[in-house]
């Protein structure tokens, strides 16, 4: 696998794109676009957020920066509930992927990790983007054989 590049602010993406443009990112690189939820990075209580909010406008800002760049990307919300927002549907419609799990989840809803994964998989199917097999994931990431 290549590097998994965490993007917490637009400036992070500019730096990653500079490395990509210079040919310094190895095959298999994945850009993870993190959006700041209402519960912030530590997720204990509302406040202490960071980055762009999980909105259509925020996603479009990142995608404008990624225009013409052939890096796979995913979305996640740290300190919030990705699956309760419009972001996963929008990302899937635009060719992105989803990153879900209890590590990032916060808010009044208390799903299990399995529930989060099942919900994300159902959203992917509804969008005509079923969950990738191992071979499909390797192709998406352009991993060497």
Give a written overview of the molecule.
This protein is an alpha/beta fold and 145 residues long. The chain has a single domain (4-140), classed as Aldolase class I (TIM Barrel, Alpha-Beta Barrel). It has five helices and four strands; from the N terminus they run βαβαβαβαα. It has helices at residues 10-21, 56-66, 87-93, 113-126, 134-140; strands at residues 4-7, 30-36, 73-78, 97-98. A four-stranded parallel sheet has the order 1-2-3-4. Helix 1 links the parallel strand 1 (4-7) and strand 2. It is globular and about 45 Å long. The model has no long low-confidence stretch (mean pLDDT 92).
Please sum up the structure shown:
35% of the residues lie in helices and 13% in strands.
Question: Element order, helices and strands?
Answer: EHEHEHEHH
Number of helices: 5
Name the CATH superfamily classification.
Aldolase class I
CATH topology name: TIM Barrel
Strand order of the largest sheet: 1-2-3-4
CATH class: Alpha Beta
Low-confidence stretches: none
Question: What is the CATH architecture descriptor?
Answer: Alpha-Beta Barrel
Mean pLDDT figure? 92
Helix content: 25-40%
N→C terminal distance: 11 Å
Largest sheet: 4 strands, parallel
Strand content: 5-15%
Query: What is the number of domains?
Result: 1
Strand tally is 4
Q: What Rg is obtained from the alpha carbons, in whole angstroms?
A: 15 Å
| Structural class based on helices, strands and sheet pairing | alpha/beta
């Amino acid at each position: 696998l290549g590097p998994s590049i965490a993007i917490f602010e637009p400036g992070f993406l500019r730096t990653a794109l500079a490395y990509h443009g210079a040919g310094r990112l190895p095959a298999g690189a994945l850009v993870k676009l993190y959006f700041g939820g209402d519960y912030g990075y530590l997720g204990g209580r509302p406040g202490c957020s960071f980055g762009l909010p999980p909105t259509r406008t925020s996603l479009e800002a990142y995608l404008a920066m990624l225009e013409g760049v052939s890096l796979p990307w995913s979305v996640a919300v740290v300190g919030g509930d990705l699956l309760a927002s419009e972001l996963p549907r929008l990302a899937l419609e635009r060719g992105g992927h989803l990153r879900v799990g209890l590590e990032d989840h916060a808010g009044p809803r208390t799903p299990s990790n399995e529930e989060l994964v099942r919900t994300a998989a159902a959203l992917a199917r509804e969008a005509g983007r079923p969950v990738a097999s191992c071979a499909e994931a390797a192709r998406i990431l352009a991993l060497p054989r």
